[in-house]
Amino acid sequence: MFDTMTFTKILGAFCGALLVFLLGKWAAETLYHTGGGHGDEQQAYVIEVDDAGDGDDAAEAEDEPTFEELLASADPDKGQRVYNKCRACHKIEDGENATGPHLYGVVGRDVGSVDGFNYSGSLVAVADVWTPENLSAFLENPSGFAPGTRMSFAGLRSAEDRADVIAYLEGIGG
């Protein structure tokens, strides 16, 4: 069924197709990579846009509420739901430590003041009191606020979530 002539035709067709493919690839690279408007050459057309980048960013930053405003309007019920992320390592009950220290009365409490809990030295060095602002900064990025802390939580990126959980913690221990 397969003789030498049939095999030679199939191999020739394959090599011819490969040659056409490689020549097409070379032509496409030459066409699109060397003269396609890259470098110092002028573009075929330019799309004009309004230059409003600097003013819009500043206006957006002014529109965002401050942390104090967020804390004043925080919802402790939402904070209780957000606290579920903390529940794995922290207890609310006074004096009941878990992997982390208890959080009863944490707002306004001295940093590192829970008896019987071994704090990492870096945490004690960054702040004296757990003010709402210190708690917010710590909850946003624990390892960024206190480099070397043993708390492995990734953080709460949303300022509203941080304000809600701080309002919840103020309500249970304040």
Automatic annotation (TrEMBL):
Pfam families assigned: Cytochrom_C
Q: Which Gene3D superfamilies match?
A: Cytochrome c-like domain (1.10.760.10)
- Give the bilayer topology: Single-pass membrane protein
Protein's cellular compartments: Cell membrane
What PROSITE patterns does this protein map onto?
CYTC (PS51007)
Q: Name one GO molecular function term.
A: electron transfer activity
Keywords on record: Cell membrane, Electron transport, Heme, Iron, Membrane, Metal-binding, Transmembrane, Transmembrane helix, Transport
What region holds the Cytochrome c domain? 74-173
Gene Ontology cellular component? plasma membrane
Q: Would I find Oxidoreductase among this entry's keywords?
A: no
InterPro entries (alphabetical): Cyt_c-like_dom, Cyt_c-like_dom_sf, Cyt_c_1A/1B
Say if the entry is tagged with keyword Membrane: yes
PANTHER family on file: CYTOCHROME C
Q: What is this protein called?
A: Cytochrome c
Query: Which organism's genome codes for this protein?
Result: Salinihabitans flavidus
